[in-house]
Design brief:
The chain is rod-shaped, with a radius of gyration of 32 Å. Helix 1 crosses helix 2, helix 1 crosses helix 3 and helix 1 crosses helix 4. It has 347 residues and is α/β, with parallel strands linked by helices.
Amino acid sequence: MEAFDEEQEAFNGSPLDDENILSGQFWGELRVFLAVAKTKSFNRAAEITNTSQPRVSRQVKRLQDLVGSQLFISTARGITLTRSGEALAKALSRLDHTLFSITSDLKAETSEAEGTVSVSITDGLNAFFAAPSLEQFSIQYPKIRLHLKSPINILNLRENQTDMMIGYSPTEASGIRFQKLGQLHFIPVAVKDYIRKYGLPTRDNLEQHRFLQSEYYLARTGLWDGWHKVVARGRIAHYCDNSFAYGMLVKAGQGIGLLPSYTLVEPNAVPLEFDLRIPVPIYLIALTDRLNSRPVRLVFDWLSEVFGSNNPWFADEFKLNNPPSVYDAGFRKMFNLAGNGGADTSP
């Protein structure tokens, strides 16, 4: 047979294929030994393992005979581990921690997750994406309660005092984990009532039009420069620092606004051709230690899906007409609230 012939058996077989497990004869003795090593006492080890002191002594002696090495030395001050005993005790301790982690994870996977998870998320993303998706999540995990909070600071997780947040820049800090999601696309929008009154805005007639400015876009970071140039050619009809009211002003026909692309689900919204598209990356940012909690981890995974690039509204490439999605019904419901009143269109 040639070397490495296809019919040749693999050199490395699975340990599970070996019927003779090396330590199979003394698993029980190893457990008792670890208890003695931790407590430095045969009596205490007997209590922990729910057996008698003479039985512990016999099992330790049997283990020493099987491995062919002395593991303990009895002194006037108690039991002392030999070098071999200490090496074995450390290896067993690592195994003990591993087994504990595995069984805890298995237990968590088979038990029902329960708890409250707090999330900082801007009003628009909350109303049009998180809220419509929450019903299915709650059906699957009925004992997980979400506390959806408006962020105090969209750049700083700790200031919001929440488990996680949807933000717009990665956070490089100890104890913080972030994950890149999709992109939020901002476009100039007017409603049909505005167009009937003032005409269709184009690149050539911006001087004749009214604009709505928001505090979100006043930061001189370079991101909103294209919007500032467009606004500078016309006149500002109103300033508005409240995101909900900003959306209401646009919907009421008071001026042209810069809105996320998902607002185009509103039948009266008209995207304007100014060659202006501003993509804003979205990040999911969480406290690392809180992700050890299963409810927090489940919410993290859920939000990663809702705001990920697989959602057509957050795809890397902007599309004017996205295919119907599970969110559209929620959008239309929000747009029709209060007799077709306004809905929050903040990022």
